[in-house]
Amino acid sequence: MEQVSPTSRPRHVIWNTAVTRPDEQFSYYREAICQAFMNLTPESATTSRFPAKVEAIKIGTGAINRVVFPEHTVHRSRADIAASTESCFYLNFKLAGRCRMLQGDSEVSLSRGQVGIVDSDREVTLLHDRGPMLEVASFWVPSRALRDRLPPSFDFRAERVSDDPHVGHLIVETARSLNAGALRMAEEDSIRLFDVLLDLVALSLSRRSRAQTAEAASFADATVLALRRAIHERLREPGL
Fold first, then answer.
1. What pLDDT does 225 receive?
2. Helix (H) or strand (E) holding 32
3. Does residue 90 lie in a domain region?
């Protein structure tokens, strides 16, 4: 399969490994997720039957990729990144099973009903397990669409945004509504709801960034105070 940009393919596409021979199913799945997500390298413990379905729904310049599959591992390697012509974030809404997302020094675990995000421009490993059949609704988010909503110096890392105490539940409900209604609502309505989802995710990520900045500033202030106190206490020591 030649890789097709999400913005140039039909609005709704389905790939189902049931249409192929059992010994060809995993290869077919590998090509399907590369079409839906950009270049990825999946690994499976089995070389035979691999029942899976990939469904891609275009939403403006983004997309929802619904995937049902057995347990396996997916890598986005340096070679995959180099071979891709676009850049995106994968915003994953876990529907069944568990997924552990490893990117850099971050590891984020997603269970049913949780939402996490990773950057396609950095190597990542997705470990899909805990269930004979697993399911995810993965939102394909163009990098610029999210980065334009974030501070210029934002330092991105893998994150479980559904944990946010203020907007986490809104992210989950918006992701659920968009996943359920994307094909039933008018495309312009799905684009508006997609924008709402990105606004909420950006708000959550920005809140985390501001909290880390404040924490770092507080630590620096505390360190300066401790140093001043130590110097003051030892000023009269002959050996200072």
1. 56
2. helix 25-37
3. yes
Cβ atoms of residues 90 and 126 within 8 Å: no
Token digits for 206? Answer: 């920005």
Asked, for residue 238, whether it belongs to a domain, the answer is no
34-84 pLDDT, tens digit each: 999 999 999 987 767 999 999 999 999 999 999 999 999 999 999 999 999
Nearest to 205 by CA among 159, 137, 138: 159
Q: By CB neighbour count within 10 A (0-12 exposed, 13-18 middle, 19+ buried), where does 64 fall?
A: buried
Domain that holds residue 64: 12-232
| Closest C-alpha to 44, from 71, 76, 66 | 71
Task: Look at phi and psi of residue 104 and say left if phi exceeds 0, alpha if psi is from -120 to 50, else beta.
Answer: left
Q: Residues 83-133: pLDDT tens digits?
A: 999 999 999 999 999 999 999 889 999 999 999 999 999 999 999 998 888
Domains: count for the chain: 1
Sheet holding 134-142, edge to edge: 12-16, 53-59, 62-69, 134-142, 88-96, 115-119
The CA-atom distances, in angstroms, between 86 and each of 7, 15, 76 are 11, 22, 14
**Residue at 239 is within a domain:** no
